[in-house]
Amino acid sequence: MGREHQQHDEHAGPDRGLAELQELLLTSDTVQEFLGDVAAAVARELGANRFSCAVTVRTHRRRPATLGTSDSFAAALDEVQYGQDQGPCLHALRTGEIVEMIDIAADRRWPRFAALAAEQGTGSALSLPLGTAPTGRVGALNLYARVPEAFTDDDRERARRYAAQAAAAVAIGVRLAQRAELSEDLRAGLSSRATIDQAIGIVMAQRRCDADAAFAVLRELSQTSNTKLREVAAQVIAHVTGPSTD
Known about the structure:
Blueprint: H1 2-27, H2 31-46, E1 52-58, E2 64-69, H3 72-84, H4 88-95, E3 99-101, H5 111-119, E4 124-130, E5 139-145, H6 153-207, H7 211-225, H8 229-241
Antiparallel strand pairs: 1-2, 1-5, 3-4, 4-5
Helix pairs in contact: 1-2, 1-6, 2-6, 3-5, 6-7, 6-8, 7-8
């Protein structure tokens, strides 16, 4: 009877975790909120008083970014790795390997990160890839503890199981974030294009030339002044219409 109850509990945990992830995805208003809730849920599942959690994802520019954390401690340790371009989080993201630093102060694999992390009071770390290599890897789940040798076999298994469950939900969240980034880039590009087109029209009127010749004038001004083309175009417009009052 006890054995049957134990087996039931072992399977109930993953199902409950998956249901919680689905609920978080459906109820979160933003990708950052969703991933923050995921990080908090993982920390809570493993013991919020023992671990801090962060979720690293790839942006559409292929750069790593932390979009969800359980607390500022985890956020700071992720940023240390980005600044040094080394550490367990980046290694897990790049290779798809699960990485554990049992005792950060004694670990020699990423010395710059280890030194800075130890200064901040970090004892151990565990990073797990989210997704499969090569194109399906969307991020990494990072756990940090303030004491060495913090992770038990049970902690590792539960973290691995949660990472496997979270991968699909995080992939959806990342795709939404990437689309938002691309939409913002498109809006910025359209705004820049409109400014340049307006400046071309002004130059055409002033010099009585066609659009190609007017664009060549703007490009030459940009190159000789070492100024972005959009900024040159804005200066041409401001010269005619007056500076913006915004």
